[in-house]
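Example 257, ligand NAP.
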Amino acid sequence: MRLANKVALITGSGSGIGRSSALLFAREGAFVVVNDLDADKGRETVEEIMSQGGRAWFVHADVTDPDSVRSMVNETLAAYSRIDVLFNNAGISGVGALHEVEPEDWDRVIRVNIRGVYLTSKYVLPHMMEHTSGSIINMSSCIAEIGLAKRASYSATKGAVLALTKSMQVDYAPYNIRVNALLPGTILTPFVENYLRTSYGDPEAAIASLKTRQLSNELGRPEDVAKAALFLASEESSFMMGSPLYVDGGVVFGKNA
Ligand code: NAP
């Protein structure tokens, strides 16, 4: 039990990597606070955890809305008295080269992917500071490190999250709070399936082509990232501070011949 009796809040955990992490954290003994914009999907995650004998609770909140985030944090503290782990996972995709992106689409990606991390951290941090402990995991992406076609708004947000992680770590290290970032490569989740459907005529051919990006010639699975998140959440990573953790099948540092 690597998270025995820890309280972990995971944003966007009604789907994909967030759901997989919620299931894994619960199996490792955590009380998981499942957040999502989509209440049905969030409740499904909770039901799945409870059907496996785990402990979880759903809180609906839009991570871009301060009142909604403040209520989520207050409700969690009222119910559990603690938040030991915050996984800022909620995020959305943005497609297009810069000149193709409409201002409202640009703003939407920035709001969810950057403001969401800022707001949730803002309201959780005072509690962690008071208790002088905590682990925050911010979801970046390997796109923060490499150029990929037609991903201008999305890459801008994930680069910002990586920079923010390092800055947060310096500010909160004196409170014994660790802040690290996850940098996944392409992970087959509803997020990527949707991107493939809307961006390519032949999604199967697109998946085959995407697989060649990895040295493993496979796409990642949500579980691959969940295991890395568990490591960052747990005491096993106690000497990791402000670090990027890559889970990308070799995309950033390897090169297929
Ligand atoms: P996903 O399956 O789409 O899950 C993301 C969840 O976040 C969805 O349930 C989504 O709800 C929720 N969400 C969106 N906006 C929200 C908001 N304002 N407030 C609360 N919840 C919100 O995506 P995923 O692939 O698991 O991605 C999770 C994170 O990993 C994202 O930050 C993504 O950028 C990052 N990431 C993914 C990959 C990849 O290849 N999959 C690679 C690198 C990084 P709705 O469905 O209702 O929008």
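Summary: Residues 103-131 form the longest helix (29 residues).
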